[in-house]
Amino acid sequence: MITPTPHHSPVDTGWIEVICGCMFSGKTEELIRRVRRANIAKQKVIVFKPEIDTRFSNDQIVSHSEQSHTSVSIKDTNDILKLARDYQVVGIDEAQFFSSDLMEICNTLANQGKRVIVAGLDQDYRGMPFEPVPQLLAIAEYITKTLAICMVCGNPADRTQRITKSQERVLVGAKDHYEARCRKCFDPPDEKN
Ligand code: ZN
Q1: Among 30, 92, 140, 167, which residue has the fewest nearby CB atoms (within 10 Å)?
Q2: What is the 183 CA–ligand 1 centroid distance (Å)?
Q3: 182: CA distance to ligand 1 center in Å?
Q4: Distance between CA 180 and CA 25 in Å, rounded?
Q5: Would you say residue 71 lies in a domain?
Q6: Cα dihedral sign for 54, 55, 57, 63?
Q7: Is-catalytic flag, 94?
Q8: CATH code where residue 85 lies
Q9: pLDDT in tens, 68-116
Q10: Burial of 76 (0-12, 13-18, 19+ CB in 10 A)
Q11: Full domain range(s) for residue 80
């Protein structure tokens, strides 16, 4: 895979990287890989996640492959700006669970000269764009779309199939509620049921 992150960091400017895709496509794993590289280079790194996501740990982001990195849980999206003040690299996981303010906040952080790395779902369980990720894609310098493997046919998968009946847009959970599907095998829920 060609990694669209910069080989030579831009000088005297910040930028935004977005890692998006469906569930089980390795978004958090890729975010952790990038922030670990920054840690090794002794850059000051902070990672945020929404407070809603308490699946695995309160003070870490954890990938499905069980890699982890320290994180700060955020209730109010606007708190990110002041908490990130003293850091060069800002990671944000589960972007789809933050408010629509996230786009402007990421712009502000990048304008302050920071490297902003945001990971999140680009589609909801109906296959519709999942705000604020589409807005972030529009303003990002670097975009990576990670693909999973379709649980039905084995093709590259970019959709998240909900396999339980709930109609809430936000249903936190992993293997019990969702599986990765390709375009052909994705079966969007019937909203009338
Ligand atoms: Zn398939």
Answers
A1: 167
A2: 7
A3: 4
A4: 8
A5: yes
A6: negative
A7: yes
A8: 3.40.50.300
A9: 889 999 999 999 999 999 999 999 999 999 999 999 999 999 999 999 9
A10: exposed
A11: 15-148
pTM of this prediction? Answer: 0.89
Instruction: Summarize pLDDT for 138-185 with one digit per residue, the tens.
Output: 999 999 999 999 999 999 999 999 998 777 766 666 667 899 999 999
User: How far, in Å, CA of 188 to CA of 160, rounded?
Assistant: 9
As a whole number of angstroms, the distance between CA 22 and CA 34 comes to 19
Q: Is 109 exposed, middle or buried (0-12, 13-18, 19+ CB in 10 A)?
A: buried
Q: Is 102 part of a structural domain of the chain?
A: yes
For the chain, give percent helix, strand, coil, nearest 5.
Answer: 20, 25, 55
Ligand 1 centre distance from Cα of residue 112 (Å): 43
